[in-house]
Amino acid sequence: xxxxxxxxxxxxxxxxxxxxAEARRSALQKDIPALRPGIEADLAARNCPNVRIDTERFRxxxxxxxxxxxxxxxxxxxxxxxxxxxxxxxxxxxxxxQACAQMWDKYGDDGTVLHLLARK
Length: 120
Hints:
two-stranded antiparallel sheet; 5% strand; mainly alpha; 2 domains
């Protein structure tokens, strides 16, 4: 048993360091600015009745930002962005009408941020 104690201690220390390093990297990570609007528009399209992604404008937005649709779901996100998106998902569950109205104001036909959404 004692023969393996240093090896076990080294493995545990390496795992602890790796966990700390990943948490620190995530906390300091800068997000691609286009991720938030793309993800928010997708949340709205999945949670709001009669709202869908404006396919052509979303493609154009993605091309301009050198992203494909999968990037919005596979790119690493900062801790802050993930917390914001979690809060928005909660708002869709708790106050769907208000959340949908806010997303439409941001991404609808006359959106203040971008035009990424359309009516069904």
